[in-house]
Amino acid sequence: MTDWVLRLIDAGGYWGIFLLMVLENVFPPIPSELIMGIGGIRVGQGRMDMVWLQVAGTLGTVVGNYFWYLVGHILGFRRLKPLVDRYGRWATLEWHDVMVLDRLFGKYGEAVVFVFRFMPAFRTMISLPAGLFRMGHVRFLLWTGGGALVWNLILAYAGYVLGQNFRDIDKYVGPVATACVVGAAVLYLWRLFTWRPRKNEASEEDII
User: Fold this and answer.
1) What is d(CA 67, CA 73) in angstroms, rounded to the nearest whole number?
2) CB atoms within 10 A of CB 168
3) Domain edges within the chain
4) Which is it for the CA torsion 41, 157, 128, 12, positive or negative?
5) CB 186 within 8 Å of CB 82
6) Tell me: the pLDDT tens digits for 28-62?
7) Neighbour tally for 57: CB within 10 Å
């Protein structure tokens, strides 16, 4: 993976960084650690500027996340209920759980979006419920951008400091990402086989 990411960055410059970061957030298997780390190496070599690297990387992150936010926003909270009623068993989810998540997101949505930017397996996934639960567009973009800027700075400076040795990160990012996916799959299967629906206890305020 390292070689083709490197070639695209060298060929596209800041636009290459932007495109890769958009793709990384639409198709999470592309690691931002590798993209911004290589960008940091190029800064150390004098071939890129740190400020413009951060602009390109952060804008790409925001655009990629905004795609999933819009998917959730277009689907909408009201359209979600028939899906939960029909397929909730496979998501181990009931409408009561959705309402709890809605209240939680309404109260702590900004912090959730910001913090999840630092979690490899969930940084993109959080954008979908942000749209579903109608987090404001401006608030979502600002908190996503803020979290992305901090994370991208850390990755770029790691590449800047470590230099060419940072290319070895691909040896570690792959197994870590795989472990996160496997862990999430195991957790899902455990919840799927142990999940039992509540009895019909929904109050009127839980029904839209």
Assistant:
1) 10
2) 11
3) 2-206
4) negative
5) no
6) 667 778 888 889 988 988 889 999 999 999 999 99
7) 28
Question: What would the two tokens of residue 171 be?
Answer: 């040896």
Radius of gyration of the chain (CA): 19
Find the mean pLDDT for residues 104-128: 74
Q: What is the DSSP letter of 134?
A: T
CB atoms < 10 A from the CB of 86, how many? 9
Identity (one letter) of the amino acid at 116?
F
Q: Which of 18-22, 55-59, 168-172 has the lowest mean pLDDT?
A: 168-172
Q: How confident is the model over 167-176, as a mean pLDDT?
A: 58
For residue 181 the two structure tokens come to 């996916």
pTM (predicted TM-score) = 0.71
Q: Which region holds residue 199: left if phi is over 0, alpha if psi is between -120 and 50, else beta? A: beta
